[in-house]
Design goal:
about 350 residues; homodimer; 434 Repressor (Amino-terminal Domain); 6-stranded mixed β-sheet; alpha/beta; 3 domains
């Protein structure tokens, strides 16, 4: 069946297309009699308003945008984003919203995407992820005419935009103190991309905690891939004063670390304790199961979607703590051997 | 800056909004002099056509739709979809396209999404994934007025729609014959969701191959999660005639199987050979690294996007073999012990 247009309704009802538009949009300019006739004809023909037409009249696009400025090769490695997106989508069904997703190589391309989306009115709002120190996106999205946005990240990174965050600093401190209490005195951190704001927050919390405890805390840098996690682990385990415990910035690097330990004959957890971040089903599938800093990423995504709907509805600002990741000790952590 | 509308241009140029619309859309109905004046004013004011306006005039939405009818809890587990989406997106940048993503609970909701997208002209075409036997979506998307679609799956499942496929049957046969050549005579398959067409194709190829070789081939059913993969592995490893080799339908179930084997003291690969599907970075991060059926999922996604653009451009039908997954033996397969 061909799509029913306003012209079809106008012809059938014997009025102008302008009159049909007025009638169907509930605007003044046509008599009640004409409005009733137009609506009856529209229903009879099976007409439906298109999002394009509603968008032109300033109505919602029923679309939320998400730009991921990550290389395709690293996107598929972690389960974080798919779980996060599934969470966002879980809030969409009641509102008939959909997610417009764009994967771009860098921040410049991300800003260009926002510019195009805004000019073409393609989305009602955007979810900004991976905020950085002095992030140019925050400035752009803070302008009075910008797309409504919610920042996924710490309040210190979000400017005046509303943000939903997890208390990563508290989680880092808890994991270091837990390992210290179990007798560990050489605790390493294998962190993610340095330019990301949450990496910096975790780095600082880690440094402060090991310094306050007066212990050694080497830090290794990665790009979240299994390969970079394995490399960092090899460097740590072959160093002169090798750590007895390592905290990783995601799940797949912790998994890779178990492989490197096995390859070197380092026993987990007897010789080496391992803690993963972003607890995932993977962490419970390894042997022994991975101790992890756990938070519900799907529920986090849903929370972000609700705050963005608030923002789209005109609510301003606000900083919302979603959760503090909780340490779930499983089989890869143990007291240090006497 | 407020968005420039056709009304602004009309006011500035001293003509009706209708005349502006005719002039900017290159349609007859205004003099060349008026057209020139309108275009000059539009440029001066910094006007840009909105996708909404272009959509109303039948121009492309520059959007491709993807509906995933999967439970959020299973979506984040596998890396397949994020890699596949990253591949689709890799073809978008040159065309300024974006992906409209919707996660829905079931096929009925997926069909309703297509209906809404079509009625509201929200996408230029859709990528249909996880085709089933007698799939109602194929019939709906085969109607003359349906959204352009490309099926990701076997030709036998795609009706007359264009499809991009991987030769899963050949890959299953190769893995069974490889294990047979290494002396295995009890080879099990741990398969995914029964209702998915590619599961059926793999099941049939597996049954035919083990029958033609005259060996035992138990089949276990899962929902792709690590938990269901672990459960299936426990059933197999505690059965009276336990298999000496198992082929899994994804990577994370194979990983979970390594955990179950360790938990039971079954050595991999000495006592049990394991083959994963959808080779991923995970497969190379385990110890020993997982033998896997390998194909490039990101490149597969890119291929699908190119075929959908062809379809949107009016190319009809066509069945395109993307690749045959290749067996990459690593550390989890070995000859059966004498």
């Amino acid at each position: 069946m061909r799509r029913i247009t306003i012209a079809d309704i106008a012809r059938e009802a014997g009025v102008s297309t302008g009159a049909v538009s007025y009638a169907l949009n509930g605007r003044p300019g046509v008599s009640e009699e004409t409005r009733a006739r137009v609506v009856a004809v529209a229903n009879q023909l099976g007409w439906e308003p298109s999002s394009a037409a509603r968008s032109l009249s300033g109505a919602p696009t029923q679309t939320v945008g998400l730009v991921l400025a990550r290389h395709p090769s690293t996107l598929g490695v972690e389960s974080f984003y798919m779980q996060f997106i599934a969470g966002i989508e879980s809030e969409f069904a009641p509102r008939s919203y959909a997610l417009l997703l764009q994967v771009v190589p860098d921040l410049e391309a991300e800003l260009e995407t926002y510019r195009r989306w805004r000019a073409a009115r393609r989305v009602d709002g955007v979810v900004l992820v991976d905020p950085r120190q002095d992030d140019p996106r925050i400035e752009v999205l803070s302008r009075p005419d910008a797309l409504p946005a919610v920042v996924v990240g710490d309040s210190s990174l979000a400017g005046d935009l509303p943000n939903v965050w997890t208390d990563d600093a508290a989680a880092v401190r808890e994991s270091v103190r837990y390992l210290y209490a179990a007798g560990h005195r050489r605790i390493a951190r294998v962190g993610g991309l340095q330019e990301l704001g949450h990496t910096h927050i975790r780095d600082v919390a880690f440094r402060e905690e090991v310094e306050s405890l007066g212990i050694e805390g080497p830090l290794e840098r990665t790009d979240y891939t299994t390969g970079s996690g394995a490399d960092a682990t090899r460097r740590l385990l072959t160093s002169v004063d090798r750590p007895t415990a390592v905290v990783y910035d995601n799940d797949v690097m912790a998994l890779a670390a178990m492989g490197v330990a096995a390859e070197l004959g380092v026993r987990v957890p007897e010789d080496l304790s391992i803690i993963a971040w972003d607890d995932s089903p993977l962490c419970q599938a390894t042997y022994p199961p991975l101790s992890a800093l756990s938070h519900d990423v799907t529920s986090f995504g849903a929370h972000v979607a609700r705050r963005l709907f608030d923002r789209i509805d005109g609510v301003r600002g606000g900083s919302f703590l979603d959760s503090t990741p909780t340490l779930r000790p499983r089989g890869t952590t143990s007291p240090v051997r006497a």
